[in-house]
Amino acid sequence: MTYSQTALDQLESGQLDDFKKSFQLALANDSDDMLYSLAEELYSLGFSDDSTTIYEKLLKKFPDDDNLKINLAELAIDKDDDDKALNYLSHVSPKSPEYVRSLMVSADLYQTQGMFEISEQKLLEAQKLAPDEPVIQFALAEFYFTTRNYRKAINLYLTLIKSGTLEMSAVDLVERLGVSYAEIGKFEQAVGYLEQIKPVKMSSDVKFELAFTYFNLKDYTKAIKAFEDLRDSDPQYSSLYPYLADSFVNLKRVDEALTAIQEGIAIDQYNEKIWQKAGQIATMANEDDLALKYLLKGREIAPDDMEILTLVSDWYISHERYSDNLKLLEPVVEDHVFDAHLAYNLAQSYQNAGKTKLAANNYEIAAHELSDNPSFLKHAALFYREAADVEKEKQYLKKYLELVPDDLEMASMYDEDSDL
Q1: What are the TM regions of this chain, as residue ranges (predicted)?
Q2: How far apart are CA 409 and CA 411, in angstroms?
């Protein structure tokens, strides 16, 4: 038995002190091939420092062995010593049979550093040198998948699948292809691939993609089943609950939608979008007080979220709580964060408070974007009628009647003003 084999046996039986002695004896006495095998075994067992020691010893004896340089580069990457890794890789000649492998390792290194352009260049160079090598096609596909360049990833996954490669490095290529199609909105293609994956092999992310695909195909019955399957297997996957609730809404099952989103609240109480969706669905269920409670909770979590702010403001307006709306929106005006819809809501609130000048100012701000909104135009016309500004009233009435010509009451009002 060689010292290398003795060292491995001692390591497996937990005799660490004896292992260290046998390891040193192996370094001094065993053949180069045996040491190389020992280094590989030690690396697989997590003893990277000992593996590095062997490779460094062998590299001194065989300074032109590029395979050793690349192995040492990989070990250096594992220890986050990127400079040392790059130094080893830089000494691999483009004429070397191992150059393509060095490009692959370099690409991984640059990707971990966030230098995606250089990483892609390395992979493309490797592909040019070995265009039919599946490992390179796979690495490039995974690079594009990871960097969300799904269209390029799709072409590479398809090439591999057509060649008969359905799995590589424990990655299901059919799954990757389905997810990629879903991510670019090609839901018809996505569902065909995602449905091929056995449920027991699906990760939570893939289950979500399948459910999300059904949702986007408007197959809400299947979407509900898929989202509920994900919920049952991974209830902490909080992103599912708003979509599950929306699926129920689209089937006009509002009570079940409210229950679903309330389950989401119980799972993730710090997700403002779940609170927002809960508020919207509570409104549909005619649970007005509950809707406000949910929306205010969402605003508490995300005070800068303009969508939630707008929903709270709309709630106050619809319930004629104009003073509450002013308390909500006036600080936003001071921060110069605003939009036309909120200006419209502010205008109505100031109008109710008898602050005519401020109301008029906000109606004019809103008019820049809401000139095709009948509700806004009607409110503005009535405001200016109340303010005795006939010209402004006629201006808004005219635009309103162009959109709603059969409103006889407003048409009569316009005729009255025209006679003045």
Answers
A1: none
A2: 5
pLDDT recorded at residue 262: 97
What domain range is 391 assigned to? 371-420
Task: Output the domain CATH number for residue 256.
Answer: 1.25.40.10
- Mapping DSSP onto H, E and C, the string for the chain reads CCHHHHHHHHHHCCCHHHHHHHHHHHHHHCCHHHHHHHHHHHHHCCCHHHHHHHHHHHHHHCCCCHHHHHHHHHHHHHCCCHHHHHHHHHCCCCCCCCHHHHHHHHHHHHHHCCCHHHHHHHHHHHHHHCCCCHHHHHHHHHHHHHCCCHHHHHHHHHHHHHCCCCEECCEEHHHHHHHHHHHCCCHHHHHHHHCCCCHHHCCHHHHHHHHHHHHHCCCHHHHHHHHHHHHHHCCCCCCHHHHHHHHHHHCCCHHHHHHHHHHHHHHCCCCHHHHHHHHHHHHHCCCHHHHHHHHHHHHHHCCCCHHHHHHHHHHHHHCCCHHHHHHHHHHHHHCCCCCHHHHHHHHHHHHHCCCHHHHHHHHHHHHHHHCCCHHHHHHHHHHHHHCCCHHHHHHHHHHHHHHCCCCHHHHHHHHHHHCC
Same domain flag for 280 and 226: yes
- Position 116 scores a pLDDT of 95
| Whole-number pLDDT of residue 420 | 56
Number of structural domains, the chain?
3
pLDDT below 70 — which residues of the chain?
A: 335-337, 419-420
